[in-house]
Amino acid sequence: TAKKSKFKKRPIFWHFPAYLESYNEKQWPWRTTPAGAVRLGDWKLIEFFEPAGGGSGTIPALPGKLELYNIKDDISEKNDLAGTMPDKVEELHRMLVQWRKSVGAPIPTEKNPQYDPKARAVGWKKARARKKKKG
Question: Basic residues compositional bias: what residue ranges (predicted)?
């Protein structure tokens, strides 16, 4: 019989300190915002680096919004358990912060001097008008 190898349980880290623009109105204006994540076993913790709702043009000091998922039971990440499992959130967040420090991963912490909240609303109106025109 073949030996069963045991994989060492180790965390997997993601770091994405940027924005990606949206392709559709449902996700307007961003399909993703600055965030980091760690997965350990069945657990995944996501840390967003901007205020909930976004659009302020600022990135607050850490920690940002934290979401916790049991991806074995919730592969679609619909049931955020952060509010009910503070110990697991603390464990994974500490791990994520330590990893980020160890690799020197940058986090945006300053206001974007080019951010214009009025332009966001104008851009949304233009996008809707183009879609209706093509329609």
Answer: 123-135
